[in-house]
Amino acid sequence: MSGPLFANWSSVLDYLRIDIGYDTTEQFRALYLNTRNSLIRDEILWRGTVDNTQVHVREVIARAIELGAAAMILVHNHPSGDAEPSAADLALTRSICRAAAPMQIAVHDHVIVSKAGCVSMRSAGLI
Questions:
Q1: Model-level pTM greater than 0.90?
Q2: H helices within 3-125, ranges in order?
Q3: What is the DSSP letter of 103?
Q4: Burial zone of 95 (CB within 10 Å; 0-12 exposed, 13-18 middle, 19+ buried)
């Protein structure tokens, strides 16, 4: 890819909401980006239940290294319709950020998606 996949942040959120906002089970995915913030891969890493999915920090980081990613946007959905991050969501995000930093992999955001909308942890000042 020679340029960015999305025209702006709003188009990223629209894409995510359409793609997973209405799913009935939780999924965790990562948008892996190169040094120009162009998409390398949009990958579903785990699928879970109606209110939970197991995420392993080292697997998120290992996949970023394998793909040669310079950055990533973390994404998961809340089938309940409430896109507000839970304490567990915040703890997971902070763990991934801590693990990514020494590898020089930026975590641009963690977006929680629901049918009602999206919450960006970065925009909310949570990371």
A1: no
A2: 9-20, 57-67, 87-100
A3: G
A4: middle
